[in-house]
Structure formats: structure tokens, C-alpha cells
Amino acid sequence: xxxxxxxxxxVGDLRTKLLFTLLMILVFRIGxxxxxxxxxxxxxxxxxxxxxxxxxxxISGGAFxxxxxxAMSITPYINASIIMQLLRVIIPRLDQMAxxxxxxxxxxxxxxxxxxxxxxxIQAIGMSVALSRFGAIIDPGFTSVMIIVVSLTAGTxxxxxxxxxxxxKGIGNGISLIIFAGIVSGIPRQLSNLSQEIAGGIVxxxxxxxxxxxxxxxxxSIVAVNEGQRRxxxxxxxxxxxxxxxxxxxxxxxxxxxxxxxxxxxxxxSLMMFPATIAMWGDQASGxxxxxxxxxxxxSVAYNAIxxxxxxxxxxxxxxxxxxxxxxxxxxKKYGGFIPxxxxxxxxAEHIDKVLTRLTLAGGTFLALIAILPNFxxxxxxxxxxxxxxxxxxxxxxxxxxxxxxxxxxxxxxSYQGFVK
Length: 421
Fold this sequence. Notes:
single chain; mainly alpha; Preprotein translocase SecY subunit; two-stranded antiparallel ribbon
């Protein structure tokens, strides 16, 4: 990895891309410290302390608890993208537009931008009304509230622009790198808290060693699952065109074990935060709120069980949206291909669907285990200052692997040394 980075900085245009990416990440980190005007930061930290909003504070790089202009992070963009993918299933015109090539993709991306701004505006209004109710706004007038709403919406729009600029002119996926940078930026603060626990005798060196071993095992398993594929063999028949013969080669259809990525975890966490948020903002003395606090608080058995089931469900749901076995079978048949032992057409689609169903179960189960793992790690090691758990590691490892693959692909365009060694 270090060798690839050294080689990348020796190539002019690739060095420019890397420096531009680092510059955009620096802008993101500066914006994460710019406070929203008119909000009492001390009241905010009292309202939002605890583990309920810990994950969203991690992916925002601490901007959520500081309540800076990037407090909502890039989540409205992610939600808009997911909604657009769902609408493609419901509205055939959108699905047809997405298949029209570059122009269609540009139009779809424009709709996602509009949706991001709309969702950010609605979310900012909800947050401002809630903050006004709990006295976190210094002057709870209409003008002050609208300044907060516009600041939060503009912050999300700027993050979306930064992400798109990184994707277009930098290296890697911009939105993913913003989340990655937010998670990494919180590590020094968490290590500082850990050092204080060590100095106070709360955590011993054995606990730290155990935590490091568990983290390394988690990283190794994430890499194995993210890179894991089920390769379905595909044979293409020979065909004669004029005086030349085409086809006849064997290839494979790669099906990823974790095709859904981290999206099911984000979906499930958004739903699981809903009852806990109602309990936090509502009347604490009511029986309904006591029920929510008992069964839906972070770390409870019921919370983890429902959370795991939702992750598996959303894994199947998301994979069904992004991968259509019937379309894949038709494309294989169109180019004269077939799976050995399986008839082309519908039997091929059923075979692919059967294999995909089993892979999705394995991938969903892995995501569920990764998501609820922090509770067991805290119980084993006693370390509570390191808030990033399996989900954060899943995001960091996935983004790091994807970015390194893009860097290496750029290097391979300029050097064929790896093929002759």
C-alpha cells in the first residue's frame, strides 16, 4: 500500500488528483468546526450526549455534537440516493432514463441533488423546532430559526458538492471518502480519552491488547467478506461471422458475498433510532416512553435482536433492487452464453437467484454480526472510550480498499511492470 502511494506521487496527473482530494477533505474538516449561529453549544452537548447519536457523530467527524454547519453530514444525500433507487423500481420511466447512458445518468444525478436539498431542508426544520423546544436556541424567533435551517441545508449541499468534486477531479468515491474522513478524524480524540482511562486505572493493558486482537480479526474478516465472490461459470458458444470465428471461451459471473455494502446497516439504524428519539424528546413519565426506554435503548437484548433482523431484511431488500437475475440471464443469453448444465433463459435466472439468495443470507448475517459486535467488545474489554465499532471499521476498510484499487488501476495504465515480474 505504501509503495503504491509513493508511486502515485511520482505520476504528475495522479499526484494532482491526490492533492485535490486531500484539499477537499481539509475543507470538510474546517467546515466541521464552523458553528451554526444562534445555538447554545453547551445545551446541545447536554441534549445529545450518550450513545444514541454516537454513530452519526462519528460519520460527521464530530460535527453533530459541535452542531456545526456540517452537523447533518451527508446522510440526506445517502437517503436521496436510496429513495431514487426505490423509485426506479416503482417508476419505469426513471429506470429507462438510468439505462440511457451518460445523459440519463446526469439527469438521475440532478434529481438526487434536488432530493438531497429537499430532505436536508425538512430535516433542518425538524431539528430547529426540537432545539427551540428544549431551549438550545439563544433567540427562538422566526429569523433565528430560519438562519439555522438555511445554515444546515447549505452545509449539506456543500458537502454534496465536495463529494462530487472528489469523484470527478480527485481519486476514489467522494461521498465515501467524506464519511471515511469523518470516522478517522475522531480517532485521536478517542485515543486521548483512552489514555485518560489508562492513567486513571479504569482500563488495563490486557484489555487494550485484547481490543487490538479483536479489531485485527474484525478487519481481516471484513476484507475477506468484501473481496469474497461466488463465481458462476459461463460458457460462450462458438459462432462464425464471415470468415472469422468468435466465442468459445469460458468465463464466470462474479456474485459478491456482500453486495449491499453498508447500506442495510444505515437503513436499520435509522429505523432503530426513531423510537429512541421519540423517547428522548417526549414525556419521560409516560408508560409508552418507559416502554421505549426499556426495550429500545442502545445495547439491550431486544434492541440488538430487532436490529439484526432489520439488517438481514434490508440486505435482501437492497440486493433485490440493485441486482435483477432475469436481466443478467437475458444478457448472457443475448451474447450466446450459458451456464454449463443449466438451460438458457428462465432456468438460468432461477439458478442465479438461488445462488444469490444464499449469498445474501451469508452477507446479511455478517453485517448483522458486525453491527451488534461493539456491545460484545465493550463487555469483553471494558473499553467504552473507543466508540467506533464494527460498522465504522466496515466503512473504513471498504473505502480504503476501493480507493487503493482505483490508485492501482491508474498506475497500471502507465506501467506494465507487474505483468512481467
